[in-house]
Design a protein that fits this description.
Two copies of one chain form a homodimer.
Chain A lengths: L5 E2 L5 H15 L5 E4 L2 H8 L5 E6 L5 E4 L5 E2 L3 E3 L3 H11 L5 E4 L6 H12 L6 E4 L1 H9 L3 H19 L1 H4 L6 H14 L18 E5 L36 E6 L1 E2 L4 E2 L2 E5 L5 H20 L6 H14 L17 E3 L6 E5 L12 E4 L2 E4 L3 E4 L2 E4 L7 E2 L8 E2 L3
Parallel strand pairs in A: 1-5, 2-7, 4-6, 7-8, 13-21
Antiparallel strand pairs in A: 2-3, 3-4, 9-10, 10-13, 11-12, 14-15, 14-16, 16-19, 17-18, 19-20
Chain lengths: 401, 401
């Protein structure tokens, strides 16, 4: 067996240069250099997850330290098991940073503090600042290469959703249907990994909600709840048998490429309450309206106001984004993680920019019937309207037909 | 629909009192109070994951603040969306803590710093200390109730593994076999969630390694590597077809109860190299020896030395715990998370205590054949030997027989 080395940077030279430049532009007003250690951030920067550190100066080439995987190579790459050793090389090769940006929201207190001390040992006057704002801004706007990865996830995601009716068998419970969708997704290439920034939200592969379980409160900040199968993971399917006259809302993992799409579709068993049918169409109308009007410069909070006004106008506000417990948003940015910028919420200060990817999920919970509505992932284009990249049929599909 | 409240503490009164007492004993030498916010730690303390905070004073009752899920109730429970509000109530009801333990390894820098400031606003002289040591120590030793949850995971885990040969079809790739095992696991009740402390390690449901992919280095600190299906998740199965003369090592998720077991078994296709057969038996011998001698007071590092000495004596040291890249441990504690204390490694200072749960995984990678060996989860008992709670057959099973 030959053990050849591999290039650490998996992106093309042009793509890598573009991402580095965008990050440097975003950080420069507040920092002279940034330490990157989080898996999602390293993947964004290099095209691969590896165990180590990147130092990105406000100008010039980045340096990389490897804690493991010493077969990776490239300019500025060296093996350094300890952050202290990496900091020493950074200090030897880069000008001292007065303000050093650290991943204060993505890394643990202990890890940030250790990194801060490692750099302070080299640069006594260094001030630690947060890298969160710059990383959040730069990751929200996808490059053309990243958009193609999002679109590819959307194509595969759609292929799975189109086959969901064939997976249903009479008498199935929500979790049984979910397991069959999981299997199909995995065979279609879904990586399964569901990355969430912040460490508070947990979900395995996605959520299937049928009947009144859609109204069960969950501790996680997802749009919909569900009691879940166990108090260690109280979200989503709870083992309810899918019953006539109720809906089944399917919101399953779209990570087929490292960049994930988010898509929800609603199914039913036999006829459902007319109000539920109507609410579903209102959800589709809200998505259409927001997609038509979404373009660079639009305020995220205005999109939220439009959505809730449409729900109110339809007389459905009490069911909008939940009934017993309401979610405080109708959409969110996504890509490597499910909760990127922008947030489509009442007090959001985010503004749409070309290349952003946004999942819109104006959903309703109708007591006695279940959850209805759709979710699509959209790309913000220069002139609008937004491009939908999750194309499965939007109608409520009867699983028994 | 009636919306009744639910008790926040899901444990029996006796079990809750036992856990609280153990935590208070563990923290008291270093802290006067502890703030708990991490999902895994909250689950350990209360028996459920919820969105909020717990304050555990060194003596007396704990207080709970709910960020969501305000239907939960109990003594000391109130709705407080902000940590600042929770800190104010804690200060009003508890004596001032001179040393406040915060989750410096489990929570982000920003979250810890915000909590620190919230409490400093109430208690100007408060010193923040790390909660990591006390939580790590107390979570390592399972209560009888927790041991029963571990055993139940083991029983279900074993039921899945016994049926693996029936899932194999000629021509299958590693990932295709993995998907069928995932489906079976989920139908058997596996929750899927794979909790890892520290945020650096990622894995979806588990790992299947066949042939030389077992020797592909991975950035994650698992015992075995594997190239994975995508550079965003470079670990485990890489899509290799399972070929005659090679092994298939199965190390799949055992989280059936919120407390997970870890178990590895080796399968093969037709005859494999005698050296691989021999290494597999050495792995079983190492597990037997360590299980026989493992009891309270034994040093973790001595267990590691025993294991590596046995591998050396068999002339297999170069293949032990990997070949191209070696893992630096042969076992680890586990429970709610896969990487709890103790660590069975050369420089570990951990000492075995009654009630600890330990996964032992002395594995070998034989070039040209693949990975061999087993992994079992054991409970440390007062008089020894350790109790094995993952009982699937340990022999290498030929998938074609």
């Amino acid at each position: 067996m030959t053990h050849t080395s591999e290039r650490l940077i998996l992106l093309s030279d042009a793509e890598y240069a573009l991402r580095l430049e965008r990050l440097q532009q975003a950080m420069a007003p507040g920092a002279d250099g940034m330490l990157v250690t989080d898996n999602a951030n390293l993947y964004w920067l290099t095209g691969r997850v590896f165990a180590g550190y990147a130092y990105v100066p406000a100008q010039g080439a980045a340096l990389y330290g490897l804690r493991r995987c010493v077969h990776l190579e490239g300019p500025g790459v060296a093996a350094e098991r300890k952050i202290e050793d990496f900091a020493a090389r950074v200090a030897a090769e880069c000008p001292a940073a007065g303000r050093l940006a650290l991943e204060m929201d993505a890394a643990s207190y202990a890890a940030v503090e250790r990194a801060r001390l490692a750099f302070a040992a080299q640069w006594p006057d260094v001030q630690a600042v947060s890298a969160t704002g710059a990383l959040r801004a730069v990751r929200a706007v996808k490059t053309p290469v990243q958009l193609d990865m999002m679109r590819l996830s959307g194509v595969r995601h759609e292929a799975v959703y189109r086959r969901i009716p064939r997976l249903y068998r009479p008498g199935m419970s929500d979790i049984e249907l979910q397991v069959e969708i999981e299997r199909l997704s995995r065979l279609e290439g879904c990586l399964g990994q569901f990355r969430v920034a912040g460490g508070e939200m947990e979900l395995f592969m996605g959520s299937i909600l049928t009947g009144d379980n859609a109204d069960a409160p969950s501790p996680y900040d997802f749009a919909m709840g569900g009691a879940g199968m166990d108090p260690s993971l109280p979200v989503g399917a709870d083992g309810s048998v899918i019953r006539p006259g109720t809906t089944v809302m399917v919101d399953m993992n779209g990570d087929f490429t490292g960049y994930m799409t988010d898509m929800t579709r609603t199914f039913c068993l036999g006829a459902i309450a007319p109000e539920a049918e109507r609410a579903h169409e209102v959800s589709r109308d809200i998505c259409r309206r927001l997609a038509e009007t979404g373009r660079p410069g639009v305020q995220a909070r205005d999109m939220y106001e439009t959505a809730i006004a449409m729900a109110r106008e339809a007389g459905l506000e009490q069911y909008f984004m939940g009934h017993r417990q309401h979610a405080g948003f109708v959409g969110h940015g996504l890509g490597i993680e499910i909760n990127e910028a922008p947030v489509i919420a009442p007090r959001s200060r985010d503004v749409l920019r070309e290349g952003m990817c946004i999942a819109l999920e104006p959903k309703f919970v109708i007591p006695g019937t279940g959850a209805v509505g759709i979710e699509n992932t959209y790309v913000v284009r220069s002139e609008g309207p937004m491009e939908c990249i999750t194309g499965a049929p939007e109608e409520i599909i009867d699983l028994e037909k």
